[in-house]
Amino acid sequence: NVHKAVVAAGEKESGITIHYVNEHYDEGQIIFQAKCEVFPEDSPEDVAKKVHVLEYNYFPEIIEKIITS
């Protein structure tokens, strides 16, 4: 679980990357990135909630921009 790994590694931020898909795993052209702060007291569940907020806020906006441009 990526959120467990973020907390276990003591990372100070996490986030989302929206990118095009190509034949290589996670190597498509990046369209958009957003970050959230991770605090030492955050649990993996806290990080997941923060990331889900980013997804909820940005996915519709970015997808609409791609479709309409």
UniProtKB/TrEMBL annotation:
Limits of the Formyl transferase N-terminal domain: 2-63
One GO molecular-function entry: phosphoribosylglycinamide formyltransferase activity
Gene3D superfamilies found in the cross-reference section: Formyl transferase, N-terminal domain
EC number(s) per entry: 2.1.2.2
Catalytic activity: N(1)-(5-phospho-beta-D-ribosyl)glycinamide + (6R)-10-formyltetrahydrofolate = N(2)-formyl-N(1)-(5-phospho-beta-D-ribosyl)glycinamide + (6S)-5,6,7,8-tetrahydrofolate + H(+)
Gene Ontology BP terms: 'de novo' IMP biosynthetic process
GO CC annotations on file: cytosol
Top-tier EC class: transferase
Entries under Pfam families matching the protein: Formyl_trans_N
Biological pathway: Purine metabolism; IMP biosynthesis via de novo pathway; N(2)-formyl-N(1)-(5-phospho-D-ribosyl)glycinamide from N(1)-(5-phospho-D-ribosyl)glycinamide (10-formyl THF route): step 1/1
Keywords linked to the UniProt accession: Purine biosynthesis, Transferase
PANTHER family, per the entry: PHOSPHORIBOSYLGLYCINAMIDE FORMYLTRANSFERASE
Family: Belongs to the GART family.
Protein name listed in UniProt: phosphoribosylglycinamide formyltransferase 1
Organism expressing this protein natively: termite gut metagenome
Native organism taxonomy: unclassified sequences, metagenomes, organismal metagenomes
